[in-house]
Write a structure and sequence with these properties.
The chain has one domain. The chain contains 11 helices and no strands.
Length: 279
């Protein structure tokens, strides 16, 4: 899971570097490129073990495409207005917090003292990252709202895909590949309407597009494979170490400020996720 965490933080760095490219164009280029790159692996996987897809399977394949499209678009909008080291932890922390609350409200879960403390740490971590520090770096409303909405999509697709690969039985690789095809198809009209601009984005941000195209699916497929035989509570803590990587990458490679405060907030988020998983 640490490999998945590092891959996840790295592709978010690429997304931030290309944040002025336009969300729809960048996400379309990324998803279309990833669909091409991972097509051979999907074909080999399907031929080696043909999946038994029911009507319910197709519903979950289509649903993940919708949720992942919303996730990538709002994440990219957040990066356009805010720092990687702020938007990334707020989005991940909000997603973890909402997933924990959904377990309480919808599934009747009753967290113990450690779980309640974890929820408190998640809230505190998001606030620490989002609010201004002594030097005045605050997460602007134009970045905060997309980051929070990103968190909603994170919670939704995590729970959705957990059901898909466990109860429904969709292969993890196919489940993730469906999101790539769905994003590429849904965003094609927007990207192709201004072909000249899309070509310009490709020429300027080719490395970021290809980096995200390779690492984003890889990071999530590793998570889905783990989810297929392990509970969410066991996977989430190691996966969310990526927020610490994201804060460090934002400082070291992008020169973003507020390192100590944002690192403290990110650490509180990771600690909160661990406490929720344990409690």
């Amino acid at each position: 899971m640490l490999v998945a965490a590092l891959a996840h933080a790295s592709w978010n760095l690429f997304s931030k570097q290309a944040s002025d490219a336009g969300a729809a164009r960048f996400v379309w280029l990324m998803s279309a490129s990833a669909a091409v790159i991972y097509a051979p692996a999907v074909v080999i996987s399907v031929l080696a073990g043909p999946p038994h897809l029911t009507a319910r399977s197709w519903v979950f394949l289509a649903g993940t495409a919708v949720l992942q499209t919303g996730y990538f678009l709002f994440l990219q909008r957040g990066y356009r207005a805010g720092d990687l080291s702020a938007v990334y932890p707020v989005g991940r922390g909000t997603g973890a917090l909402l997933a924990a609350m959904a377990g309480i409200v919808l599934l009747g879960e009753r967290p113990g003292p450690a779980g309640l403390a974890g929820i408190g740490l998640l809230v505190a971590g998001v606030i620490i990252v989002g609010l201004p520090g002594r030097s005045g770096q605050a997460l602007a409303p134009a970045a905060l709202l997309p980051a929070l909405v990103t968190g909603i999509f994170i919670a939704a697709y995590t729970l959705w895909d957990k059901v898909a690969v466990t109860s429904v039985g969709n292969p993890p690789l196919l489940q993730d590949y469906a999101s790539l095809l769905g994003m590429a198809a849904a965003l094609a009209p927007f990207a192709l309407a201004g072909r000249g601009q899309t070509v310009a984005v490709w020429r300027r941000y080719r490395r970021q597009v290809l980096g995200a195209a390779v690492l984003a699916p890889l990071a999530y497929v590793l998570v889905l494979i783990a989810l297929s035989f392990s509970p969410v509570a066991a996977i989430a803590p190691a996966r969310e170490v990526s927020v610490l990587f994201g804060v460090v990458l934002g400082r070291r490679l992008l020169g973003e400020g507020g390192l100590a405060r944002r690192l403290a907030g990110a650490a509180a988020i990771v600690a909160g996720i661990i406490a929720v998983a344990v409690g």
